[in-house]
Design goal:
This protein has 3 helices and no strands. By secondary structure, the protein is mostly helical. The radius of gyration is 18 Å and the shape is extended.
Length: 87
């Protein structure tokens, strides 16, 4: 993470904290938790974007979702096939 860091105190259930610590690897618990929070913020932002789009254009159908998934999978496969790292 390129931004300056700051220390915070958080409270979470012990079992979740211990599972996160066990999975955090060499980067440590703080980095693991920061990455998890960043993913959640991305999901929240995406949810807000979807809500705005649906308010303007109507609900998204299951078929439309599947079409976009297929498109993303094809694009991901094409990037991998071209030697470009998609990760």
């Amino acid at each position: 993470m390129s931004e300056p860091t700051r220390k915070y105190s958080i409270t979470m259930p012990r079992d979740i904290a211990e599972a996160a610590r066990a999975r955090s690897g060499p980067s440590g618990l703080s980095a693991y938790v920061a990455a998890a929070v960043a993913r959640q913020i991305e999901r929240d932002n995406l949810g807000e974007l979807i809500a705005v789009a649906e308010a303007e254009h109507g609900p998204i159908t299951s078929e439309e979702v599947q079409q976009k998934r297929d498109l993303l999978r094809r694009a991901h496969g094409e990037r991998r096939g071209s030697g470009v790292d998609a990760a």
